[in-house]
Write a structure and sequence with these properties.
- The structure is a single chain.
- It contains 14 helices and 25 strands.
- By secondary structure, the protein is α/β, with parallel strands linked by helices.
- Strand 12 and strand 13 form a beta hairpin.
- The protein starts with a strand and ends with a strand.
- About 4% of the residues have low confidence.
C-alpha cells in the first residue's frame, strides 16, 4: 500500500508508514494542541515534493494563519499551495439568513469571492470546493468550524462524509482533517467524523508529576499495522516532533546477541529474539497455554544444537513436550539418550527412569545447587537453553535460596551464548520473589487472558524491540503452533 508522509518521521512510523494514499486522517485535540501546525507540516512536505496542495481553513483568516505559522519554515506563498477560508457568517440570504463567504489565496495573489445569496449548506460548500481540484494533498482545518452546516449530528456527519469523498474520490487526494475537543476530550459535534476517516490521531494534554505535557496517540489506521502507544508531542522551530524516536537503544549500540525464537512475529517484537547471556522472565496468570510457546522455544534451541535443561511444573509432562515436537526429527527420549536434554525433577514425577532425569533429593546430596551444577557440567562447552518454572522451584526451596541460586547461575555459570528463561505465576508466588525475578531479568514477557477469553503477550521490558507493545496470541494447527498478531 502506498503511503503519504505527514512530515514527522516518528508519527509516520506510528501510523504504519504514513497516511494511505488517497485516504483521510482525522487529528483531534484541544485548542492549541498543535493540530493546525501538524496539518500545515503535512502540506509543506507535499510542497517540497512539488505536489499540489490545498489548505481549507474554517476558523482563521489568512492574516491569522500567517501569524500562526510565522515561527515555522512554512511557505504560504508557494505556487504549489492554495489556501481558502470557508466561513459561515450572517448575511442577506432570504432562505437561511446565512451566507458562505470564501476567500482564496493562490500563490500569493489574493482574490475574494463572496456569495451573498447562497446559504451555508453542504451542497454549496462541496460545489465551491470542487472547483479547486484535483490536487494531491488537502487539509480541512477544522471540521468543527463547519458545524453550522447542519442542524443535527447525523446531518453533520453526512456533510463531513461528503467532503471526505470529494477529497478522496473526485480529487484523488490524501487528506488530513482536524477537529477540536472540549475539556472532556470529546466533541459531540465531531465525534462521529472519526468513523468516516481512514485513521484517527488523538492529541491530548496530560500531567506528569505536576507538569503538563502534550501526547499523541494513533487510535485507528485501517489496513496498516500502526502503533497505538502514546508519544510525547513537541512543537519545535521546525514544526511538530513526536518523541521518543526510539523506546530503547539501537541494537548496534548495545551489541546484543539474540536467540531467534523461530516465530517471526515474536522476533520482531523483541528486536531479534531472546537476549543471550541474560535471563528472560515470562510471567503468566495460570489461565493461558503459555507452554505452547515454551515448547517451541525448546524446539528451536534443540534445532540449533543447544543443550536443554528444563524444570517443568507438575501440570506439564515430558509426553506433552513430545506432542509439541511432532514435526521435528527428535523426541524427548532421543534427546535424553544423546545427553542433550537434562530434566530437573523438582516436584512430582514424569515417569521417566533415566540418568538425565535428576530428582531433587537434598538428603542424597542432590539439592538445587547441585542439580544446577550438574546441568552446566553436562552441557560443557555447548550453549545451554534453560527453561526453569519457578512453581516447582519454590515448592522445594525457600525464596531466599531461589534468589541465591539465580545470582550464582548468573555470575558463575551462565555464558554469553546461554539462554535462560524463568516462568513465573505471580498469582501463587510471593510479590517480593516475583519482583526479584522481574527486576533482574533483561527481558520480561507477560502472558494473560482477558475477560473475553483472548490471550495476550505483552513486552514489559526489553533492551531491544518494542517494550510496551502487546500482541494477541493466536494458536495454530501447524508449527510453530503459536503466533502473535
Amino acid at each position: 500500500m502506498d503511503v503519504v508522509s505527514v512530515g514527522c518521521d516518528r508519527l509516520n512510523t506510528l501510523l504504519g508508514g504514513g497516511i494511505p494514499s488517497g485516504r483521510s486522517l482525522l487529528v483531534t485535540g484541544p485548542p492549541g494542541a498543535g493540530k493546525t501546525t501538524l496539518a500545515m507540516q503535512f502540506l509543506q512536505e507535499g510542497v517540497e515534493s512539488g505536489e499540489d496542495c490545498l489548505f481549507v481553513t474554517t476558523e482563521q483568516s489568512i492574516a491569522e494563519l500567517r501569524d500562526s505559522f510565522e515561527p515555522y519554515p512554512f511557505d504560504l506563498d508557494a505556487p504549489e499551495l492554495t489556501v481558502v477560508t470557508v466561513n459561515a457568517e450572517p448575511g442577506e440570504s432570504i432562505e437561511s439568513g446565512k451566507d458562505i463567504v470564501v476567500r482564496t489565496v493562490d500563490g500569493g495573489d489574493t482574490t475574494v469571492t463572496e456569495w451573498f445569496d447562497l446559504p451555508f449548506t453542504r451542497e454549496n460548500v462541496v460545489h465551491y470546493l470542487s472547483e479547486l481540484g484535483p490536487t494531491d494533498r488537502v487539509v480541512l482545518d477544522s471540521v468543527s468550524g463547519i458545524r453550522p452546516i447542519a442542524e443535527d449530528r447525523i446531518s453533520f456527519w453526512r456533510s463531513c462524509y461528503s467532503l471526505i469523498r470529494l477529497f478522496s474520490e473526485a480529487f484523488d487526494a490524501t487528506s488530513l482533517l482536524t477537529a477540536s475537543n472540549g475539556p472532556g476530550g470529546k466533541d459531540t459535534a465531531t465525534d462521529l467524523v472519526r468513523y468516516a476517516t481512514h485513521g484517527v490521531c488523538e492529541i491530548a494534554y496530560e500531567r506528569v508529576r505536576g507538569q503538563r505535557h502534550r501526547f499523541v496517540r494513533v487510535t485507528k489506521m485501517r489496513g496498516l499495522e500502526h502503533d497505538d502507544r502514546r508519544h510525547k508531542l513537541r512543537l519545535t522551530d521546525e514544526g511538530v516532533v513526536a518523541q521518543p524516536r526510539r523506546r530503547n537503544h539501537a541494537p548496534g549500540l548495545l551489541e546484543h546477541d539474540h536467540f531467534s525464537t523461530g516465530i517471526d512475529s515474536l522476533d520482531d517484537l523483541l528486536g531479534g529474539g531472546l537476549v543471550r547471556g541474560g535471563m528472560t522472565a515470562l510471567t503468566h496468570d495460570g489461565r493461558t497455554d503459555y507452554y505452547a510457546l515454551n515448547a517451541r522455544l525448546l524446539a528451536q534451541a534443540a534445532r540449533e544444537g543447544m543443550t536443554l535443561t528444563v524444570a517443568l511444573p507438575a501440570a506439564v509432562s515430558l509426553d506433552r513436550l513430545d506432542r509439541y515436537w511432532a514435526d521435528t526429527d527428535w523426541d524427548v527420549a532421543t534427546l535424553l539418550d544423546a545427553d542433550r536434554l537434562l530434566v530437573l525433577e523438582l516436584a512430582g514425577g514424569n515417569s521417566r527412569n533415566h540418568r538425565n532425569v535428576l530428582t531433587y533429593d537434598e538428603s542424597a546430596g542432590r539439592d538445587w545447587e547441585r542439580l544446577m551444577e550438574a546441568a552446566y557440567e553436562r552441557a560443557g562447552a555447548t550453549p545451554m537453553f534453560a527453561l526453569i518454572d519457578t512453581e516447582p522451584l519454590t515448592q522445594t526451596i525457600s525464596d531466599e535460596q531461589a534468589r541465591e541460586v539465580r545470582y550464582r547461575a548468573a555470575t558463575a555459570e551462565t555464558s554469553d551464548d546461554d539462554v535462560i528463561v524463568y516462568t513465573i505465576n505471580p498469582r501463587i508466588q510471593s510479590d517480593p520473589l516475583v519482583a526479584f525475578f522481574v527486576d533482574t531479568s533483561q527481558q520480561t514477557l507477560e502472558f494473560h487472558r482477558d475477560d473475553d477469553g483472548l490471550e495476550w503477550l505483552s513486552v514489559e521490558k526489553s533492551p531491544t524491540g518494542s517494550p510496551g507493545a502487546s500482541r494477541l496470541v493466536s494458536y495454530e494447527s501447524e508449527p510453530p503452533y503459536v503466533d502473535f498478531v
